[in-house]
Amino acid sequence: MLVLPVKNRTPDRPPENLVEVRDLHFSYEDNAVLKGVNLAIPRGKVVAILGVSGCGKSTLLRHFGGQLKPSRGSVTFDGQVVHELGNKRLYALRRKMGMMFQVSGLFSDLSVYENLAYPMREHTDLPEDVIHDLVLMKLHAVGLRGAHALRTGELSGGMARRVALARAIALDPMLIMYDEPFAGLDPISLNTIAELIRHLNDALGLTSVLVTYDVPESLKIADYVYFLHEGVVVAEGDVAEITDSKDPFVQQFVHAAPDGPVAFQYPSRPFPEELDLAQAEPPDESA
To answer: What is the pLDDT confidence band of residue 284, given thresholds at 50, 70 and 90?
Structure first.
């Protein structure tokens, strides 16, 4: 019997984008924060989401992990619509994610070692000797293997941020989310964290998302950049496109200009009206 080859048969491949955000809307009561966000996070890339404080960057990240549910639109992670998942599948999905919080989020009563061992004990059945080796490996990757016995209160700001980064990669996630990773750091620590984000992403085959307002460091390490303003993506592109952009918002943000689409004054009534100042009437010359 003649068996003909099957044409175009290829093994199932994961989608090119690890995360896709489509027409995402979200409000805190009457305050509309996200008003139709569309973006994609390709696998293996470092993507920066930039914007002024309060523009919805952290709110967007909370949708990635299913902490918030959209009022309209969706976030898809690894082919799964996040807000449609039940608790069991949502918790399984979150194990594929790592998070580095704005203020590190370390357990203050635990040592550096115990901070990293905690998620391994909580989410795996690994024996203690394997956990020991993994913790030291993760700390070695961020240059702090020798600090494993320190309490978190003994760490500098930069060291605490590096420990938080080591904990974010503790379970070998597919995606790491960085919420303002450069905030409050001195120049040396800031540059160290930026280089670690890029190096670990490439060395471990990760996908990384940074939400930040720090333009120079982001442009050094990002493959692609989105600008978020007033609840929507107002500009996007690779680093060269962003650097050469003539878009007024991008120009203002990249060059830290005080005037532009982002106004200095918060919207309000005219100042004289706010102070209830009446216009002085001209004198009556006929008197």
So the answer is: low
Domain count, the chain: 1
- 138, part of any domain: yes
**Which amino acid, one-letter code, is at 56?**
G
In 43-168, which ranges are E strands?
Answer: 46-50, 72-77, 80-81, 97-100
- pTM of the predicted model as reported, rounded to 2 decimal places: 0.82
Give me the residues paired with residue 190 across strands.
Answer: none
Is there a contact between 244 and 231 (Cβ–Cβ < 8 Å)? Answer: no
Question: In angstroms, rounded to a whole number, what is the distance separating the alpha carbons of residues 77 and 56?
Answer: 19
In a domain, 195, yes or no: no
Angle at 50 between CA 49 and CA 55, to 5 degrees: 100
Q: Does some domain include residue 199?
A: no
Q: Is-contact 122 131, C-beta < 8 A?
A: no
Closest by alpha carbon to 243, among 259, 258, 227, 254?
Answer: 254
CA torsion 149→183→44→220, rounded to 10°?
-120
Residues spanned by the domain of 140 = 103-170
Is 146 part of a structural domain of the chain?
A: yes
Integer Cα distance of 84 and 205 in angstroms: 27
